[in-house]
């Protein structure tokens, strides 16, 4: 079953503002590599969920068998960013989207969030 947060089985694209990255995006400025893994898809998905929960000021608001939505709050003013993951077990990847809800620029926060998540998964043994 497709989540309302996906379009044609992919994560929603980014807006024109530079405060979003998405591995399902075609736009070069918003593009980021998906999280690739080896081994069991369920184990990789569980590791991704643990990694998200370990991130500061981040909570999971929706968890489905192949989709996760989390909210991350900024330390200073509490602005909310959305972090979305989509499991593609057949391709051995987790698509990712991280986007600010407000403002124009994020000073690279969303891209760094995804790279932090990638590093945590690699440290947990889920790298290609």
Topology:
Layout: E1 6-7, E2 10-11, E3 20-22, E4 35-36, H1 41-53, E5 58-63, E6 67-73, E7 80-88, E8 93-100, H2 109-123
Antiparallel strand pairs: 1-2, 3-8, 4-8, 5-6, 6-7, 7-8
Radius of gyration: 14 Å
| β-strand number | 8
Written as H for each helix and E for each strand, in order along the chain, the element string is: EEEEHEEEEH
Total count of domains: 1
CATH architecture: 2-Layer Sandwich
Strand portion = 25-35%
Under CATH, the homologous superfamily reads: Kinase associated domain 1, KA1
According to CATH, what is the topology?
TATA-Binding Protein
Overall morphology: globular
If you had to describe this structure to a student in words, what would you say it looks like?
With 128 residues, this protein is of the alpha+beta class. It has a single domain (19-123), classed as Kinase associated domain 1, KA1 (TATA-Binding Protein), CATH 3.30.310. The chain has two helices and eight strands. It has helices spanning 41-53, 109-123; strands at 6-7, 10-11, 20-22, 35-36, 58-63, 67-73, 80-88, 93-100. Strands 3, 4, 5, 6, 7 and 8 form a six-stranded antiparallel sheet that branches. Strands 1-2 form a two-stranded antiparallel sheet. The longest helix has 15 residues, at 109-123. The model has no long low-confidence stretch (mean pLDDT 91).
Q: Which key phrases capture this entry?
A:
TATA-Binding Protein, 30% strand, alpha+beta, 128 residues, six-stranded antiparallel β-sheet
Question: Can you give me a brief rundown of this structure?
Answer:
The protein has helices at 41-53, 109-123; strands at 6-7, 10-11, 20-22, 35-36, 58-63, 67-73, 80-88, 93-100.
């Amino acid at each position: 079953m497709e989540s309302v947060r996906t379009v044609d089985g992919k994560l929603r694209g980014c807006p024109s503002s530079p405060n979003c990255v998405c591995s399902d995006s075609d736009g070069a400025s918003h593009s980021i590599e998906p999280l690739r893994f080896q081994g069991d898809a369920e184990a990789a998905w569980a590791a991704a969920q643990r990694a998200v929960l370990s991130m500061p000021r981040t909570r999971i608001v929706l968890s489905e068998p192949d989709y996760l939505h989390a909210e991350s709050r900024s330390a200073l003013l509490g602005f909310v960013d959305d972090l979305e993951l989509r499991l593609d077990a057949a391709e051995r990847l987790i698509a990712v989207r991280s986007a600010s809800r407000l403002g124009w620029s994020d000073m690279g926060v969303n891209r760094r969030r995804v790279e932090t998540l990638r590093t945590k998964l690699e440290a947990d043994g889920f790298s290609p």
